[in-house]
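Archive maintenance. Older records in this collection stored only the sequence; we are now back-filling the structure field for every entry so that each record is complete. The fields below show one back-filled record exactly as it appears after the update. Entries are processed alphabetically, and Aldo/keto reductase is next in the queue.

ARCHIVE ENTRY
Title: Aldo/keto reductase
Organism field: Paenibacillus plantarum
Length field: 285
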Amino acid sequence: MTTTTNHANLQSTITLHNDVKMPWLGLGVFKVEDGPEVVQAVKSAMQVGYRSIDTAAIYGNEASVGQGIREGMGEHGLTRDQLFVTSKVWNADLGYESTIAAYEASLEKLGLEYLDLYLIHWPVQGKYVEAWRALETLYKEGRVKAIGVSNFQIHHLEDVMGTGSIKPMVNQVELHPLLAQTDLHDFCKKHGIQLEAWSPLMQGQLLENPVLSEIAAKYGKSIAQVILRWDFQRGIVTIPKSTKAHRILENGSIFDFALTNEDMNAINGMNQNIRVGPDPDNFDF
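Back-filled structure field:
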């Protein structure tokens, strides 16, 4: 699927295979310290129009994310159903009962009654199938709006699809121009699983790339905006991380231009299958 409309905005959504609507762009808070910094980042995002916030148990900042959400809702007259909040179960808690307990702990820290999306953070061998069974229970009981996975390769997805009764709604993975994830993207599209990109800017390593720089100059946009627009036009949900209000605003300003097919192909051609994060088939944490 290619999305090229310029009528989209920060509230625009993609409909997941269970009919839940998920914003195309969200704020990621990986490595944002718990406390005033993450509270302000969440509030800044909500102020400029973001409606999706992505955190995780291992980030250690769920309490402050929740505080930012509550304060932001009050300041901007938003209701809970206008927001899309994601968290993830960490590796140490994978298992049936422990995953359910981890979900409840995340809700308590966030101060929320439910999550819009709950993900298995990493495919720990021998544990993620049981964890998926727990997510299915939470979903069937109506305690979470959507369930999914993170950092899953095709064979991990086949495992949970082969043993479970519900397909993941989302697969959140490292994805950027040097790791385009084309095969995984094709697989997810075939099975109705929404792909979501973390580290879309490759932790800042692409912000001086000459190919991207030339494209950005052509549109009068930043490299970050070009990358996020590339994701959007590929039909990929994206969660860029920033703590600075002007960057949060800039990252959200991608709906007033469209990349040509030529520019899309130029960015597609940058792929080298290079990761900045761990390999999902070979990690130790």
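Update note: The CA atoms of residues 220 and 257 lie 10 Å apart. The radius of gyration is 18 Å.
Entry marked complete.
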